Amino acid sequence: MPRRGLGRGLDALLPGASEAELQELPVGALRPSRFQPREAFDEGRLEELANSIRQHGVVQPIVARRSGDGYEVVVGERRWRATVLAGLETIPALVRDFSDAGAMELALIENLQREDLNPMEEATAYRRLIEEFRFTQETVAERVGRERTHVAHCLRLLGLEPEVQEALRRGELSLGHGKVLAGVSNREAQRRLAGKVREGALSVRALELLVGRTPGRRKTSPAGPGDPTLQSLEERLARRLGTRVRIRPARTGGRIEILYFGPSELQRLLEGLLGEDAVL
Question: How many whole angstroms separate alpha carbon 219 and alpha carbon 141?
Fold first, then answer.
């Protein structure tokens, strides 16, 4: 059996962790986390990993936290599942105390680093951090090492038609395709354009050209690259409120749009604007 270490990925996630902290936990004492951002595990790839574990053991330990009379997997659920398939009785683990928010944050970061999540899994995880743990979009972006605009684009995917979301989950559409389709307000047009991408393997640029000729697309914000003053104001308001803001000028006035992604974020915004007594 080869000598186990923390592994480069785990060492980056938990700086300061040492090999001396590792424990051998019974696989039966572990259970999956409800904060796991991955929605599905490929059975074929699990079996491949199980075969590797049978030959070489578990090269990189998992991360777990205590839960009741057992443990909950925080990082490494795929390795744990494969270890069970391989027939091993124990698995090396680093046991730490994490809050719910900390457990979800670490699991999300680990999956993003490995690029294991599809766009919808990523978007759903961001929404959970915002709704369940009252993170702002900026906080999410800072914690997971992404641009705030990337987080905002991912969250917009949650408004796509269900069958378009499913195509993103299956890898039939890319994140870039999803971003373009999120700008199409007509639901039937969304489905039709997604179908054209799947049938013709259209590039994101080709889809953008199609969308440009499609009725029912959402108009871009007037505060675009051609209006740096309004764009700067949007960014300042977004930083103050912790969410995306659009300024929509018109000939005789205009409007300011404040975006939110779930009831808990709406409640947070209301409290910030109206005071702590604001109730939905």
Answer: 26
267 exposure class (CB count in 10 Å sphere: 0-12, 13-18, 19+): middle
Answer yes or no: is pLDDT of 52 > 50: yes
Q: Which of 72, 77, 131, 234 is catalytic?
A: 77
Whether 122 is in a domain gets the answer no
Q: Which DSSP state fits 21?
A: G
CA dist 194 → 174, 208, 216, 251, 252 (Å): 11, 12, 15, 35, 38
Q: Mean pLDDT across the chain, nearest whole number?
A: 83
Report the number of distinct structural domains present in the chain: 3
For 213, phi and psi rounded to 5 degrees? Answer: -105, 10
Residues 15 and 95 in one domain: yes
| 77 noted as active-site residue | yes
Query: Model confidence over 162-184: pLDDT tens digits?
Result: 999 999 999 999 999 999 998 88
Q: Domain for residue 269, yes or no?
A: yes
- Enclosing domain of residue 242: 228-274
Cα gap 237→229, rounded to integer Å: 12
Q: Is residue 132 one of the residues assigned to a domain?
A: no
Q: What is the pLDDT of residues 56-96, one digit of tens each?
A: 999 889 999 999 899 999 999 999 999 999 999 999 999 99
